Structures are given as C-alpha cells and as structure tokens.
C-alpha cells in the first residue's frame, strides 16, 4: 500500500462497516452482465474483475439493500466504472465539438424503458436502466436522470481542466468533484436499494442538504487519498493531494496530512448535521425512514469505500493494464 492509501486506511469510518450477505452473488451477476453485453472479454479481464469485486463494493455501500436489488446495483456500478475510466482517459483528448457530442450521447443513454440504443455501451446501459426503472417511480427516475446529467456535466469540466493542464483551487475542485465523482447518483441509488423514496418536500431541505454536502466531501477526500498514487502515476493532478500541495506550497506528504485533518473536521460536521436531521424528522414520522436513510447514505458509502478500496486492484497500476484490454466503447459511441 502507498503512503496515500495508508493514510486513507487510517481515516475513521463514519459508521460501522457492514457487508450484505448476498455480496458474492452480486459480484458474479456484475461480471456476467459485463461479459453478456460484450463490455469486457472474460479472457482479458476476469482476474482483474474478480479482484476488484464489485459485489463487495455494493455489499459494503448498500448493506441493507433488498436482496433482489443488490445484483442490479452491482451491474450498474461495474458498467459505470468501466465507462468512467474510459471517459477519464478519452475526454481530455477530444476537441470541444467532439467533447460536446460525446457528452450529449452519454446524457441520452438513459432511454425510456422498452427502448434500445444503437451501440454496445448504450444497449448495456439501457438494459441496466430498464431494470432499475421497472422497480422505481417516475419521480425517482427523474431525479436519477438529473444526477446522471450532473455527472456528465462534471466529467466535461474535468476534461476541460485536464486538457488545459490547469490546477483548480481547492474550493473550485470541491465544488465540482461531487459531480464527476457521481456522488449524487450513489445517494439516489440508496432509495432504490432500500425501496424507499425521499419525499419531494424535503429533497432540497437545508438540514438534509447540509448532511449530504458534508458527507459527500468525506467521500471525495477518502476517494482522492485512495486514488492519488494511481492518478499521479498517470500524470493527472486533478486530485486533492496535488491541488492542496500547490495551493499551500507544501509537499505531497504535508498535503496528505492536511487532508486527513480536514476529513476529521468534516466528519464532525457530518455527524452534527445528521443529528439535526434526525431531530427534525421526528415530527414527521411518515418521512422518518426515508430521510434518515438518505442522510446516512454518505456515511455508509464512505465507510464502505474505505473498506472495499484498500488494496483493491482498481486502485493499483492493474487498472490501466485492464483498461487497455477493454474495447473502446466511448470512442465507438462518439463515432456513431
């Protein structure tokens, strides 16, 4: 383990770690889905995917999911991870018109249930989306689409910074990082996992938003510590470690310690915000379960991420080796 990931492993999990009992079955379902839809050739990627273990990922991050939902979540996360890696590599190489065209194609991949898309990736995403849509309300689907659109817009921002070789400020980065990290997608998926739905009157409630914002920053800090070694090795500086080092004129090691301290402060903020949400929601018992679950989601996700990611193949040089053997689905999508 690297010094960055070792420090991430020392971070206090916001909540106790729990693993869904169906994690192994979910992992098999995720790999079968990638092979069935020709996203990955099993001869090229089976060892890597087995070591990455997307079943453990969703099992840690959605430990209370309905058993029938966990394989669907693992399929989505595995597909999204492959596509996200390709997007991170391809997007900075594109001209502005090409980037706009690719983002438009990605935004349109969440097709209405029953329709198909004319690409390998689009068909796979369509099938994963249809499986989720069959189990959720139109209101939930609309919020998921908004989170997906926000993710694609965030990836566009990331590509523009990388193409320009620009190092943003910490404040600017933390404003954008939750978008292309896909944090809001992960939170919305909590509702589907648990068969609950956040009531529209509280979707933008300030108390709940405070809990989500501080909790999502915990996800971002821990993720960047875990991925810093791989990203720096690939020449990327769009990571909190080098960004903070540049802003504070300090070493990467010193920036790492500053991030660990920031994590501890934001963890205290998050716990205070969750307590405020729990106190407020008691007067609306019909909303209690859904609001509590959504407020808790970033903490559960962070704890799961810390457990799943430490020593994982996805956070090593093996990810680049694996991705070189995967068909370039995003380039194919752009060429249609």
Molecular structure report:
It is built from 16 helices and no strands. The protein is an all-alpha fold and 336 residues long. Helix 8 (138-164) packs across helix 9 (170-181).
Structure at a glance:
The protein has about 325 residues and is mostly helical. It has 16 helices and no strands. The protein is globular.
Q: What are the defining features of this structure?
A:
72% helix; single chain; 16 helices; mainly alpha; 336 residues
Task: Give the SSE map.
Elements lengths: L2 H7 L13 H14 L5 H11 L1 H8 L8 H21 L5 H12 L12 H14 L4 H27 L5 H12 L1 H12 L11 H28 L6 H9 L3 H30 L6 H22 L8 H7 L4 H7 L1
Give the SSE string.
HHHHHHHHHHHHHHHH
Number of strands: 0
By DSSP (H or I, 4+ residues per run), the number of helices equals: 16
Taking the alpha carbons of the first and last residues, their distance comes to 41 Å
How would you characterize the largest beta sheet? none
Structural class: mainly alpha
Q: How helical, in percent, are the residues?
A: over 70%
Which segments are poorly predicted (pLDDT under 50) over 5 or more consecutive residues? none
Shape: globular
Strand content: under 5%
Radius of gyration: 19 Å
């Amino acid at each position: 383990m690297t010094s960055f990931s070792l420090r991430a492993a020392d971070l206090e999990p916001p909540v106790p770690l729990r693993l869904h009992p169906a994690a192994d079955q979910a992992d098999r379902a995720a790999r079968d889905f990638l092979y069935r839809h020709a996203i990955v050739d099993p001869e090229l990627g089976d060892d890597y995917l087995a070591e990455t273990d997307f079943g453990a990922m969703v099992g840690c991050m959605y430990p209370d999911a309905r058993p029938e939902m966990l394989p669907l979540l693992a399929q989505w996360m595995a597909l999204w991870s492959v596509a996200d890696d390709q997007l991170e590599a391809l997007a900075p190489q594109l001209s502005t018109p090409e980037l706009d065209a690719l983002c438009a194609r990605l935004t349109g991949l969440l097709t209405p249930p029953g329709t198909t898309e004319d690409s390998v990736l689009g068909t796979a995403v369509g099938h994963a989306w249809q499986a989720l849509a069959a189990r959720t309300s139109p209101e939930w689907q609309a919020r998921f689409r908004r989170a997906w659109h926000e993710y694609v817009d965030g990836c566009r921002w990331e590509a523009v910074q990388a193409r320009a070789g620009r190092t943003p400020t910490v404040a600017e980065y933390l404003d954008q990082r939750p978008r292309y990290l896909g944090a809001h997608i992960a939170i919305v998926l909590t509702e589907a996992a648990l068969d609950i739905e956040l009531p529209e009157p509280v979707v933008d409630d300030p108390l709940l938003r405070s809990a989500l914002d501080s909790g999502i920053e915990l996800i971002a800090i821990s993720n960047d510590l875990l991925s810093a070694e791989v990203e720096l090795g690939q020449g990327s500086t769009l990571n909190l470690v080098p960004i903070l080092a540049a802003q504070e004129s300090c070493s990467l090691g010193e920036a790492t310690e500053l991030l660990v301290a920031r994590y501890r402060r934001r963890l205290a903020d998050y716990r205070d915000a969750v307590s405020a949400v729990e106190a407020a929601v008691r007067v609306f018992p019909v909303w209690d379960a859904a609001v509590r679950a959504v407020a808790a989601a970033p903490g559960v996700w962070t704890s799961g991420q810390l457990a799943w990611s430490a020593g994982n193949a996805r956070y090593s040089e093996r990810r680049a080796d694996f991705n070189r053997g995967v068909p370039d689905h995003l380039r194919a999508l752009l060429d249609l």
